[in-house]
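Escalated from tier 1: thiamine diphosphate holo job.
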Amino acid sequence: MANCLRRFGRLGLISKAKNGKRELYSTTSVSPASGDNTSSTKSINLFTAVNQALHIALDSDPRSYVFGEDVGFGGVFRCTTGLADRFGKQRVFNTPLCEQGIVGFAIGLAAMDNRAIAEIQFVDYIYPAFDQAGDIPIVNEAAKFRYRSGNQFNCGGLTIRAPYGAVGHGGHYHSQSPEAFFCHVPGIKVVIPRSPRQAKGLLLSCIRDPNPVVFFEPKWLYRLAVEEVPENDYMLPLSEAEVIREGSDITLVGWGAQLSIMAEACVEAEKDGISCELIDLRTLLPWDKETVEASVKKTGRLLISHEAPVTGGFGAEISASIVERCFLRLEAPVARVCGLDTPFPLVFEPFYMPTKNKILDAIKATVSY
Amino acid sequence: MSLIHRSSSLLKPLAAGPASLLRRSFSSVTDDDATKITVETSVPFTGHRIDPPPRTIDTTPKELMTFFVDMARMRRMEIAADSLYKSKLIRGFCHLYDGQEAVAVGMEAAITRKDCIITAYRDHCIFLGRGGTLLEAFAELMGRKAGCSKGKGGSMHFYKKDGGFYGGHGIVGAQVPLGCGLAFAQKYSKEDHVTFTLYGDGAANQGQLFEALNMAALWDLPAILVCENNHYGMGTAEWRAAKSPAYYKRGDYVPGLKVDGMDVFAVKQACKFAKEHVLKNGPIILEMDTYRYHGHSMSDPGSTYRTRDEISGVRQERDPIERIRKLILSHDIASEKELKDIEKEARKEVDEAIAQAKESPMPEPSELFTNVYVKDHGVEVFGVDRKEVRTVLA
Ligand SMILES: Cc1ncc(C[n+]2csc(CCOP(=O)(O)OP(=O)(O)O)c2C)c(N)n1
Ligand SMILES: [Mg+2]
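Tier 2 regenerated the structure:
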């Protein structure tokens, strides 16, 4: 799997970014947990950033644990490399192949005031654990534990990490983006980073957040995205969107790997004189409506883009909320450029994907509505 | 854990057939050849809550030759798939079956196409066993129209309805309850057919497996749960993941049988036995002790979590094709050269199938939107630049 990540150069922008374009790498509010603001940075890729965050999490809290399928060996994407050696097999360990068990176990561990950091090998395999996520596996267990016990219990120390999204040829079961399912579950947080620096800071925040969090990592970017990342311990705020490009004609909202595609579209649109504002939502649940609202009030137009199928995608929620808040300021219908309403295809992935040209088309159509 | 433990003395014929058998050309081995050969399985079966079948099994020169031909073709197909992958003609995920051929071939020899088989993603050879062609296999691997799933499934999703093959499934363990559903339908229609549900040693730890077992036992379904224990789930050795790696016992109240999955005769005997058993008594687990030579998938070199000695030891001591080769030679059914020629022929067949598969076009772009529902709903769809493909599907 890891190999295939190297082969695909969809992210022209990531490399260009090094030559001075800043779309994806504006650095807001890096708030060092340690208060040390002078930390040096190093150029690393996204899986290394995740790995650093896990090292710091385990190092800074002796009650934290990392486990999942093959994580003791470093995991399929190398995110957990070196952890077992450094922190021991008691705290970093392999589980059997049993996702529902993994997440249920993690909820129990977290209920005893520990930080349980569970890895699901691919987000496509999270469904067996879906029940667990809600309340304590994800949907029925984790999300509702605090609520149904009247705050006696919770699994706030739970963080579930899983790689999501397209990689070029992952096919039906190594490409999906299921974030919308989880955004329908009050009680959990859903966070998706766009770059190495974001990944490290957001992951540390998720691990330390007193609520259960699912953290979806864009696997396309594991190796492709490289950025200067502070070496120290820092956290980035949850539920705070970030404006990563300012503009006046239209607001674009996205998250994760899709932002790099949207950023390319913004650059193209600029050549046609259209000024785009690009927002990284970062936390999808609970999401930062205010930042999006303020932007749309300024631009009067909104486009949302995600890889997941358009129908019932999280774009629909954003669209509805913003129409409620900005109805009189909107100058065009909200545009959604998303995955098609088909299973994620093995052949014709480019047709399925919300590509740059599709976004560009929608930008032009919306601006000239 | 010793994987290399088969004594080769077992390869000696138990009972030599009639004298007429002495050295004939294998081409004279015909359908009505009544010559009987009795062989003994490599090791005894081990039963759990059941008396195992006998170790001896009758065969014929024709069957021996068929086993050789079928397994040689499968082996060649997988090796060719490996090179096609490396030359980027196959993309995505691809899991090879070489080493495990005796399971596919032995199982097929014991059952009919009215019996169902359902498996995980390591499905190429099961598909061939069910009557699929090399062309359909390679075309599917390369995402072409002529593929068994019209190029839309790829390596992990081979299917063949008319051969009773319910396919290749990507989510580990998910096919096991499905197999119970198939078996229920068979039982309900009062046909004497059964379902073989294949899963790996890694999958054996999934909760759904136990849910499926309970249902199958509760309703006495004609379901045979075949655990293809190749001793690793990706990079994880069985003992790292399972408190009890005696998978044939893990049904507790469901009987089980441990079988040498590298011995096609043992597999055949076990499957025949299991079929009779489940039609009368409800489910059984067959644990096939087998081995995959390749890594888990194409991105796994397969050598970091096991030693090269282990792999070459299995190849030397237990290879399913070599076992049959030795039997054929010791019974003087064909010469070394004739067997070599068969392997050459397999290579040729595979090469021809690949050439043909390459000629097959990609599916039409509109195929992206078909088969989502029975009748595809009227969404407007468009290609990369909205002009390339734009159609409203009614
Ligand atoms: C639910 C689920 N979890 C994880 C995976 C990733 N995965 C694919 S194959 C595999 C190992 C399975 O091993 P085993 O069942 O022994 O079958 P084998 O590959 O040896 O044939 C894993 C972990 C998956 N496909 N589905
Ligand atoms: Mg296995």
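The CA atoms of residues 121 and 170 of chain B lie 5 Å apart.
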